[in-house]
């Protein structure tokens, strides 16, 4: 395979050595260039023998540069080829239980090991070959793995993929080569919880220290499951049992390895009606992006922000909208803020998810339509605050394609979105 050059950075080593847009990069130091990982790995050296095609002419050129400096070539796509999609039909897949008619990008199932290394995505390993794993080990690519269970037969059933069980062997191959992995388990009641969860955590802990962390997250169940595998949400008691299994294993790992390794998602504590663990439980928050420790981190940061904030502030009333799962948590934070700043009024509203179904309770899946329907006619105060996870990463659009402007127009109020950062959260409440 080869890659067509679509841009050459001005002043870069490639620019100084005369490479042009339209050249086709074939190999670097004798290694065929198939994608961005080949390009990054083989172009890291300080002396490069480039082979590229220009029209009908094949050119070989020696390029000298500083080690690890970028060669300066650009290609049509970030990966230099198309993303690898998922070959599984997982019983818990959230994409399969979304309604029709949403924007096309929401239906793409990514399962690309390159994006796992470059962007932290999770992969199932099912579409990888021995050759792929050899390359991952050679390039020292630490990746994130969706494990779900280490029981081969159960993994095949849960993923609807007959190769899913045998691909578990790659975990040991990568661990033996010294790679570090983060893992996740989507936990489903009466399927991979209980004894199955215990076995999975035991098996993963046997690969320590190369398993850096494991997040256990509860399955999300929408109302769009006609024809799909029968699943249901966790009951409070079942959520508590999951927490107990994980916390016991975490204590064992802490004693043996000086790290807890495994963590329940915040949602389990909310489901079980239990207090969040103390700050030290989360160590350096290795599974923050998986919803592990977000609320504890936010609480601690709000406390810090309150210690230093000005108290001579004007009166202000805001409405803070969130998912129903975290409503009580945000009300508790609001009470803490209003106790120190009595001139500030915070109305916390848990938005019931009519779009996906009431079993979906997290803030990140609240839509603009549900905000409008449930807040219309209320006295909202000076500003409506929402968590930024409700919006598309690169623009102010909700999952139902309504915009922040739409919500502002329909509710006749300014909307402010803030990150899961206690200082930004308090600034938004105070109108700073």
Structure, explained:
The chain is α/β, with parallel strands linked by helices and 432 residues long. It folds into three domains: 3-75, PDZ domain (Pdz3 Domain); 95-292, pyruvate-formate lyase- activating enzyme (Alpha-Beta Horseshoe); 297-430, 3-Layer(aba) Sandwich (Rossmann fold), CATH 3.40.50. 32% of the residues lie in helices and 19% in strands. It has helices at 13-16, 36-42, 113-119, 130-138, 152-159, 169-176, 194-205, 236-257, 266-272, 294-308, 327-340, 368-375, 404-411, 422-430; strands at residues 3-8, 24-28, 31-32, 47-54, 57-64, 73-75, 122-123, 144-146, 181-187, 211-218, 262-264, 316-323, 344-351, 383-387, 415-418. Strands 1, 2, 3, 4, 5 and 6 form a six-stranded antiparallel β-sheet that branches. A five-stranded parallel β-sheet has the order 7-8-9-10-11. A four-stranded parallel β-sheet has the order 13-12-14-15, sandwiched between helices. Strand 4 (47-54) and strand 5 form a beta hairpin. Helix 8 (236-257) packs across helix 9 (266-272), helix 10 (294-308) runs parallel beside helix 11 and helix 10 packs across helix 14. It is globular. The termini are far apart.
């Amino acid at each position: 395979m080869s890659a067509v050059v679509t841009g050459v950075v001005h002043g870069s080593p490639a620019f100084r050595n005369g490479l042009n847009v339209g050249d086709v990069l074939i190999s670097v130091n004798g290694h065929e260039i198939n994608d961005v990982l080949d390009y990054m790995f083989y172009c890291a050296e300080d002396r490069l023998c480039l082979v590229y095609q220009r029209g009908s002419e094949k050119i070989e050129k020696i390029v000298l540069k500083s080690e690890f400096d970028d060669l300066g070539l650009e290609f049509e796509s970030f990966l230099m080829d198309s993303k690898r999609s998922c070959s599984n039909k997982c019983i818990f897949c959230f994409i399969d239980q979304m309604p029709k008619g949403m924007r096309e990008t929401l239906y793409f199932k990514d399962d690309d090991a390159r994006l796992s290394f470059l962007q932290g995505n999770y992969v199932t390993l099912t579409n990888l070959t021995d050759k792929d794993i050899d390359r991952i080990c050679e390039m020292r690519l630490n990746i994130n793995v969706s494990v779900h269970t280490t029981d081969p037969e159960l993994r095949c059933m849960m993923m609807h993929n007959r190769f899913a069980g045998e691909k578990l062997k790659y975990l040991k191959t990568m661990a033996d080569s010294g790679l570090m992995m983060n893992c996740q388990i989507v936990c489903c009641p009466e399927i991979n919880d209980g004894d199955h969860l215990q076995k999975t955590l035991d098996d993963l802990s046997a690969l320590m220290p190369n398993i850096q962390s494991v997040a256990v997250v509860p399955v999300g169940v929408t109302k769009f499951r006609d024809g799909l595998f029968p699943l249901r949400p966790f009951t409070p008691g079942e959520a508590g049992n999951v927490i107990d299994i994980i916390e016991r294993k975490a204590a064992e790992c802490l004693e043996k390895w000086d790290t807890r390794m495994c963590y329940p998602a915040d949602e389990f504590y909310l489901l079980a009606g239990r207090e969040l663990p103390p700050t030290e439980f989360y160590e350096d928050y290795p599974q923050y992006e998986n919803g592990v420790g977000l609320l504890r981190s936010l609480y601690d940061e709000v406390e810090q922000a309150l210690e230093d904030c000005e108290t001579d502030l004007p009166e202000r009333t805001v409405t803070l909208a969130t998912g129903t799962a975290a409503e009580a948590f945000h009300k508790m934070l609001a009470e803490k803020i209003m106790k120190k700043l009595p001139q500030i009024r915070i109305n916390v509203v848990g938005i019931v998810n009519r779009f996906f179904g009431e079993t979906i309770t997290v803030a990140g899946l609240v839509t603009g339509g549900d905000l409008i329907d449930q807040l219309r006619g209320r006295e909202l105060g000076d500003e409506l605050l929402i968590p930024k996870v409700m919006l598309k990463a690169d623009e102010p659009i909700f999952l139902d394609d309504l915009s922040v402007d739409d919500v502002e127009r329909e509710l006749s109020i300014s909307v402010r979105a803030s990150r899961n950062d206690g200082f930004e959260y308090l600034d938004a409440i105070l109108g700073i």
